[in-house]
Design goal:
Monooxygenase; six-stranded mixed β-sheet; Jelly Rolls; 15 strands
């Protein structure tokens, strides 16, 4: 047997011995090790062997992938959350938004980062004149995750504000805030002037501009203002980034705003679902 063949055999023997040594560990120890990886790695580990499968599917591993306050969060769900294991719960919370707080917010776990995502419904936002039925119309929409959304009938002063406490979000994470909306076929006056968007946390503030209709927009975006771009979403809505911020873990209030108040023209046809906060990729 040549030297290369001997070396290969030794390497294979070493790997087999290492795997055997790992499998000799108690399942609880393997679960603890796997809990320091990621959900994707845990699923891959389950394919190694029966012993690894038991450890990778255990509650010990998957509870580490859930937020520390997951029990409090699911207690706010509008309907009971049923699950037989922590892995099943993680899959549920990362696959579809959970409607909480009387149907005014949704919660979701980002399956790639294990970070918290929230969406504030239109009812959770402060929208100027939204209580006036001549200005705004509240109605259920089949494509909305919330019981109702709101459509702009006609105003000249458009201002939408939202706020959330950083303690609800994952610490040590950079978040983006996004206005989620649609433009009705009858939409008018929304692109004459650029809209202003901003996110403010403590002393930090980021600002930008947005033209809802680039062809209609008559004013150039100021050079120092970053122009935001409309993006289609997988759920059929549109979104625009209001800004981003870093959540270092201390308790602060995040203030988010979308407004077009300089133009005197009438505006209509904006359908608002809410503001989403999710980790930046």
């Amino acid at each position: 047997m040549d030297h290369c063949a001997i070396s290969r055999r030794r390497r294979i023997t070493g790997k087999l011995a290492q795997a055997t040594t790992m499998e000799a560990l108690p399942e609880e120890c393997l679960s603890h090790v796997i809990s320091f990886t990621s959900p994707r790695d845990a699923c891959r580990s389950a394919l190694v062997s029966g012993i690894f499968r038991g450890a990778a599917d255990s509650d010990i591993a998957w509870e580490k992938f859930l937020p520390l306050d997951y029990l409090e969060i699911i207690s706010r769900s509008i309907s009971p959350v049923e699950y037989s294991s922590k892995k099943e719960l993680f899959i549920k919370l990362s696959s579809a938004p959970l409607l909480i707080d009387g149907g005014n917010k949704t919660f979701l776990i980002d399956k790639y980062t294990n970070k918290k995502c929230y969406m504030l419904s239109a009812r959770e936002l402060s929208i100027s004149w939204s209580t006036n039925s001549l200005c705004w119309c509240w109605k259920p929409l089949a494509q909305s995750r919330f019981p109702e959304a709101v459509e702009l009938i006609m105003v000249c002063w458009l201002e939408i504000r939202g706020k959330i406490n950083t303690k609800m979000l994952s610490p040590n994470t950079t978040y983006g805030a996004y206005l989620v909306f649609q433009l009705a076929h009858r939409a008018f006056g929304l692109g004459v002037l650029p809209s202003k968007v901003s996110v403010e946390v403590g002393d930090y503030k980021t600002q930008g501009t947005l033209c809802l209709n680039r062809e209609e927009c008559k004013m150039q975006v100021e050079e120092q203002q970053r122009e935001r771009v409309l993006c289609p979403r997988d759920d059929g809505w549109l979104e625009v980034e209001l800004g981003e911020f870093y959540n270092g873990g201390s308790e602060k209030e995040v203030k988010m705003e979308f407004r077009e108040t300089k133009g005197e023209q009438l505006k209509g046809g904006l359908v608002v679902e809410g503001i989403e906060l999710r980790p930046k990729q």
